[in-house]
Predict the 3D structure of the following.
Amino acid sequence: MAMLDIYKLGDEILSKKCKRVEKFDSSISLLVEAMFETMDEDNGVGLAGPQVGVDFRLFVIDDQDGHRLAFINPEIIETSVETVDMEEGCLSIPNVYHDVERAAQVSIQAQDVNGKSFKIEHANGLLARAIQHENDHLNGVLFIDRLSEKEREKMVAKYYKKNHIKKADR
């Protein structure tokens, strides 16, 4: 299976709201497999369609307990009032990390690679955080967009500096 390119901060697809998956065929299964492989190669926890240039509402997560989950056409149906601040990073913004406040617990419904609906209720910890982070990607939202304008600007500058990207290359 071929590795997929990961789109980076500044690529237009990362700021777009993605389309629903309407056709469940072998191409979706192959895409999901390639996404898991790409995520593993880059030591990620999750990876969303737009991060690999795909304008579809889908993401994959490795929940760190050995479960590899594919979420297609996901909808977060419930979030807890309680929130948790935790450091986040993103494969599309490498080498940059910042605390982000998110709901401590979420419930989500989605479809699997065959189009079968499923629901995960009261996910918490890293799984809840990853679900929210990856679902944001499907709506054109990056984790740095959840920061204050001042903090976001600092993170963008840090990204360019840490990744040796010059102004002329932006």
In short: Strands lie at 46-48, 58-62, 68-79, 83-90, 93-103, 105-111, 117-124. The chain has a mean pLDDT of 94.
